[in-house]
Every structure is written in structure tokens, then in C-alpha cells.
Amino acid sequence: MTRPLLVLLALAVMAPPAAAQSRPSAPARPARPPAQRRVELGIGGGVAGGLSLGSRDASLTSNNTSGSPFRLFSTDTTLAPAAVLEGRLGYRLTPRFTLDGTITIGRPELTTSLSADAESAPSVDATERVTEYVVTGGVSWRLTRNTRRRWIPFVSGGAGVARHVHDGQSLIESGVDTYFGGGVLRQLSPRTGVRADGRLHLLRGGLAEGAGVTPRGALTGSIFVTF
Amino acid sequence: MKGHLVACGLAIAVVVAGATPASAYLQLSVTLRGQVTTIKWNQLPVRWFSSRASVPSVTADQFQSTMNAAFGTWEAVPSATIAFQYGGFTSATPSDDGDGISTLGFESHPEMDRTLAATGFTLDLVSGSIVESDIFFNTSFEWSTSGAATAFDLQSVATHEIGHFLGLGHSALGETEIQASGGRRVIAAGSVMFPIAFGRGITTDRALQPDDIAGVSSTYPAGDFSSNTGMLLGRVRLGGRGVFAAHVVAFNLRTGDLVGSFTLNRDGEFAIRGLAPGLYAVRVEPIDDADTDSFFDDPGIDINFRATLADRVVAVPKGGSSPTFDLTVPSK
Question: In terms of CA atoms, which chain B residue is nearest residue A112?
């Protein structure tokens, strides 16, 4: 799903803005308003929430006719909240509607709690640091007209890929990340602004394989410039 | 070829309440000219014959069809290339070693009062190839093909023995308890190749478990098996030295599959092959100390340490191996 969106975004960026096609020889007509800046480039950071990746028992088959499970030990796996860096490329199709391509990078800790051992091995938390890349394409819709010196609320949604690279790059897991959320932005000058995003991400597959669709929150803030 | 043949007398048995587990997903091997060589069939399909011996509860035809089903269970593993061919009934017996006929059948062994069945091999001592393997099922026990509550399930025990027939050793993926009679009773197992049989009337060992599948697939890999699976490498250490014959279990956090192996040298190194790519929790334990030499012909087995859960998870890649993983265990 990400790929078509990003292609669309790239095509949109390459197309010349319609407002630039004015005829140079037009005499003595009223000055046009400045061309609308359509491309937004943002960078920022924030926090991605934790993920519960589920509990699972390491089980043997019991010596009975039903073959019921015999627990050797239990596991419970979580991905800890982590700081993330965020980059965003936006293209404003209309004053209120923007296509967004976003990448966030973090280094969360993956923790698996091992407990309830059949031979009383001490419980431990097994940890590993993973590098997380989330690349998404989406849209945002400004709820009010763009007005300077005023916070503008917006809603957003999209989908993409979440990749988790394990220690030593020995294993890369990719899942589908879908998000929706919203936030506020404010134009600080004709070319710059700030933006705060809150999102609910739903991860399916990849690191969350076997755990179904797992939700997590994310809060980011960024500054952006327009071209 | 014949000049290289030898009847090894190497017999692997499944027992009832008698022995101790040692190795999970262990490939049988012999030392040939100083080289440790995994034994396996090099010519497929493997032809087998059925003896005409029967017991009151199992006719010769029932025996043959039950063996056929057990062979089919191994043959159906998609990641392995093993294939069998039924050759017919034979007048040979499983005790006829070196006759070139792999025979399965009932035999009376009253002196083996805790052995349900056993497998023997004839090997080519140049290549390590199995050229004959025979399995007997002890008529001292009551057998059933229908899961009768008073008898041992013939297909379950046959599935175990055919694992040996293919060159697999015993698995230690299981828990036992000492019985008042002195033997051991299995509480639970995670592999058909666990050495102690389930109780009478229990048929769960007709189906292979992930440990069995990893073992047969590593021995007889299908074309893409090696590229689709990975290997977990590591060392087990105690007080700064390697631990020999520690039982290491890898648990796939996504699929729930359990696959085991052993540290097989004095540096405490182990390698578990044939793992689905993913994240693994690792557990190490000593083999049960009641009868360690049933599985390792070595007096240096380390059992003086406690079961330990590793404090990190290990990522196993597709077609490669994990970074070497060190685990220190505490002494008892």
C-alpha cells in the first residue's frame, strides 16, 4: 500500500505547480497572490509507545490420552517505548488536503520475560535491542482554513511497512503498519511551521507475527519548511 | 562394496520406564578413519520388508499396514527428501544382520523386559552410509493398532524406531520422574524421538513434532531447506569452561516450536540446525543424571549445573546462522 502512495507523492512533487504557468506578457493586470507553497519538508522526534507481543508457553505433550500441553516454561514478549526520529515529506493537493510520506527510526528494547520453569530455573528478562524503521504513506486533512498565528487541527491516516532489524542484522522482520490520528500545526512564517502529531499505529505481521493486530501509540513533534 | 560392510551391532531402543533421555534431535554418527560421520541412507528410496510374525492382537497384514503408515509419516515431511518402498513380506527376521534386507517384525526378547523395540544397522564403513537397518518389536509386550488402553500403540513406537532407521538419535525434549520401582516414567515429551515411550493406549507419538522434523530435514534436506531455515550457534559455559553434553532447547517465540540439541565438545559449543527464521528463547539443562552413559559414551558429561533460562533472545536468520550466543550456567 505504501508504494503506490509514495509513487503518487513523487509524481506530484515533480509536476509543476499550476500557479507558475502565468503568461509573462500579461500587461497591467492586478498582481496575483503569491504561488501557494505545496511541498512540506519536516523533521522532528518523539516517542513511540510499547507493543505487547503476547504470551506463549513452551509446551511438551503430556503422557495421557488427550495429549494435553505440559508447560516447560512461559514467555511474555513486549517492545518497550522508545524515542524516535521522524522525517516527513508532504505535498498539499489543496489548502486543506495533504499527501504525507513519513519515516520514523527508533531503537526500542525487545524484552521477553521467561518464567514458570518446570525445573525451577530462575525467571529472567531476555532483552535485545532492535532497530525499527516505519515508512508510511498517508493523508492529512486540515479541519480549518490555513490562518497565520493560529493552531490548525488536522486528522491523518495511512499505511506502510514496519521493519525491525535485530542485533547483528541477522534477522529482519517486516510487518504492515496502519495508522490514524491527528494533531495541530502552526505556520510560524510563510515558509516555516511546527506540527505535533498523535497517532495510533496498528501493526500486523513481522515482529507481531502470531500476536494478531497489535496497537501502539506515538507522539511526535516536528518543524517544517515549505517550498 | 561388500568388503566395506560391517554389522555394527549398533542398536537403539525405545524403552518403557527404564532409560534416561540424552539428546534432542541428535544425528547418529560413527568415527570413520578419524572423522565423525553422520550415518544416513545414501540411496533412495529405502526398501524395507515385513516379517510374517504376528501377535494375538496384531496380524501380519495389520503389522505391515501399520509400518506403512509410520513410514508415510516421515515421508510426508515436506522439507525432507526421504522416500521408502515396501518390498513385501520376507522370511528373514530382524535379527538377520548383514543379509542386505531391512526387515521389520515382531520378535520375542523376554530378557529385555524394558525394551519395547530396537533398531540395528549395517553400515558401509567407507562412506558411513546405512545399507541395512532392522527393527524388532518385542512380543513380551502387548501391542495394539487401535489405541487399546491395555496395549502399547504399535504405530507410535514404529514412528520412533523409523526415526532411528533414518539415522536419528534420541531426543531429550521431555520430562521424567523416578518411579518407586526404580525406573523412570515420562511425564511429557516434545519429540517422537524421546527415548521413553508414552503409556499404554496413548497414540500421540504417531505425529511428528518440530524437533523430529528439524532432525530428519537436516539429515535429508529438501532442495530449499538450507536456504529457508537457519542455525542457532552458541556456547554453554560454567565457571569459565565449556560444558559438555548440556541439553539446549530453542523455543520459537512466534510459532511455539521447540527444537533441541546438545553441546558436543569440551568448549561447550552447540549448533541447532533447521530452525525456522525468527526469535528464539533458549533454555539449557543437564541431561538426567540417572543413566547418562545410555546416550553419550563419554565419562566427561557435565551434569553439575542447574537448568537455566537465557537472559537474551536470539535472532535466527533465513539461510544463515545467529551470532554466536554465550550462556553461563550456575553450578548445582
Answer: B313
Query: Do B311 and A124 lie within an 8 Å CB cutoff?
Result: yes
Quote the cell numbers at residue B140. Answer: 513380551
At B115-152, the pLDDT tens digits run 899 998 888 888 889 999 999 999 999 999 999 999 99
Q: What is the CATH number of domain A36-55+69-226?
A: 2.40.160.20
pLDDT at A111 over 90: yes
Measured CA angle at A168 (ends B227, A176), to 5 deg? 70
**Cβ contacts from A onto B, under 8 A:** 132
Backbone angles phi, psi at A12, to 5 degrees: -65, -40
CA pair distance B64, B234, nearest whole angstrom: 43
Sign of the Cα pseudo-torsion (B149, B151, B157, B159, in order): negative
Do A174 and A163 form a contact (C-beta atoms < 8 A)?
A: yes
Q: Helices B154-165 and B60-75, interaxial angle, to 10°? A: 50
The ipTM is 0.85
Residue B202 to residue A64, Cβ atoms within 8 A: yes
Cis bond upstream, residue B45 (ω within 30): yes
Angstroms from A223 CA to nearest CA on chain B: 37
- Domain ranges for chain A, please list them: 36-55+69-226
Best CA proximity match to B102, nearest among B167, B155, B63, B51: B51
Sign of CA dihedral A121, B255, B73, B99: negative
* Contact between chains at B188 and A70 (C-beta distance less than 8 A): yes
Residue B266: half-sphere exposure toward Cβ, Cα within 13 Å: 3
- Is A61's CB within 8 Å of B209's CB? yes
Buried b (16+ CB within 10 A) or exposed e, B223-246: eebbebbbbbbbbbbbeeebbbbb
- The β-bridge relationship of strands B241-242 and B29-32 is unpaired
Q: If you average pLDDT over residues A9-34, what whole number do you get?
A: 45
Partner residue facing B258 (CB), from A58, A124, A170:
A58
CB contact under 8 A, A63 and B199: yes
Q: What are the residues whose beta carbons fall under 8 Å from the beta carbon of A226, sequence distance 6 or more?
A: A37, A38, A39, A40, A41, A190, A191, A192, A193
Cβ neighbours of B285 in A, within 8 Å: 119, 121
- pTM recorded for the entire structure: 0.81
Please list every residue in chain A whose beta carbon sits closer than 8 Å to the beta carbon of residue B281. Answer: 58, 73, 75, 112, 114, 126
Residue that the C-alpha cell 495421557 belongs to? A64
pLDDT beneath 70: ranges in chain B: 1-30, 32, 288-299
* C-alpha neighbours within 13 Å on the C-beta side of residue B141: 25
DSSP secondary structure letters along B111-133:
T-TTEEEEEEEEEETTT-BEEEE
